[in-house]
Amino acid sequence: MKFPKAAVILATGVASALAQTPAGTTALTPPETRLVAAIDANSAADRALLEQLVNINSGTMHLAGVIAVKDVLVPRFEALGFRVHWVPMEKVTARAGDLVAEHACPAGAGHCGKRLLLIGHMDTVFEPSSAFQRYAPVPDSAGQVATGPGVADMKGGLVIMLAALHAMEQAGALKNVEIRIVLSGDEERPGAPLEKARHDLIEAAKQSDVALEFEPGSRLFGQNPEGQDTVSIGRRSSIMWHIETSGLSGHSSQIFGEHFGYGAIYELTRILDAFRTQLPEGGLTYSVGLVLGGATAQMNAEQTGGEATGKDNVIPPAAIAYGDLRTLSNEQTARVEEKMRAIAARHLPKTGAKITFDDGYPAMTVTPAGRDLLREWSDASEALGLGPVVEAGPMTRGAGDISFVASYLPGLVGVGALGQGSHAEGETVFLDSLPSQAKRNAVLMERLSQQPSGR
Ligand SMILES: [Zn+2]
Fold this sequence. Notes:
- The structure is a single chain.
- The protein has helices at about 5-20, 30-40, 45-55, 65-80, 90-95, 155-170, 195, 200-205, 265-280, 330-345, 370-385, 435-450, and strands at about 85-90, 95-105, 115-120, 135, 145, 180-185, 210-215, 220, 230, 240-245, 285-295, 295-300, 305-310, 320-325, 350-355, 390, 410-415, 420, 430.
- By secondary structure, the protein is an alpha+beta fold.
- It has a 6-stranded mixed β-sheet with strand order 1-2-6-3-7-17, with helices on both faces. Strands 4-5-19-18 form a 4-stranded antiparallel β-sheet, with no helix packed on it.
- The site of zinc ion has 5 residues, from loops.
């Protein structure tokens, strides 16, 4: 018997919880019960690992910090039988690098059931300059909530991934599973070009059947005071657009006239207002983030501000704006971009406009295969006595790394820690979600490994 006594007692506790699960839900099998026991037995160590990881600053641009996180993770993956490969990216994209790990199927690729791809990131939005640096329990939460930079997004997810894999190893369920892991060091601020930055992830996806993205999920507090856990199967795209308009400069008294026309700022506002009134449709948003215009208009290199000059009595010859575009599908992206181009091309007299789109994140569209996976996740949760999990729709979150591989395979988004306030100082994690999400992941992975490979 591999488990210490405490684990056996905890496993019995789970068995009694199972008796209360609603009729019709499949109960846990003996190997699945062993996964639960292993996760419970290790939960104090998992919390300690979370604290350790959170207290290493790994803001995206703090490359040494991202590497320090990698150095904590590598021996843990190796101890579980993964072959780990560090891909430095500093010279390619000016970011830290990607951790790529592989657990091979002993019988040969594709002979261990569904081939799994686990996606995560080691960086956070909190750079060393941030005031938010340390892990701490949240007062008055009875030890149930903790705060810290990246505690949910997504160092909690890294701990959950390791906890699930460790339990599988302890329960003898990892031997015959084919798993690839790609942890990027630049999810929060991807390096360019994106196709190079996400190369490892895309290559791993081509060899996998199902993706699990360990980003944070949300717990809804509505009718159920305990909270309702959610997971997502779609993410919207995120693409940045830029508009530059031009016009003739002259005395403002002559604006709208045949000679000087309307100026660059009226042309820009015409376009933006046409976007507002003519583009709305389901699942689509587009926000204008920054506008500059006048005699001169210049955006800074970081695209976070700029400079403009002008006078009330001079028709402005230059204006720029930029914003984002978020869609449910790549078809929607193409169609809306086409409409935006057409609007931009209907110039006011004596003006010009140019609109360009950056290659951003594609959309991860909700698919039937994604729905099946969501059902399996929720079934695993019910069998664990944790209740059903509901879908958090694509409008509830931003874009993410899984979007780059969504055209290759179905996946779940938000199988990591459940918390609140990601990307803001004071971000929190519900600590009970570390074992509960680890159990859902371990049981789902075990079940997927029993299903034939192929999509
Ligand atoms: Zn994240």
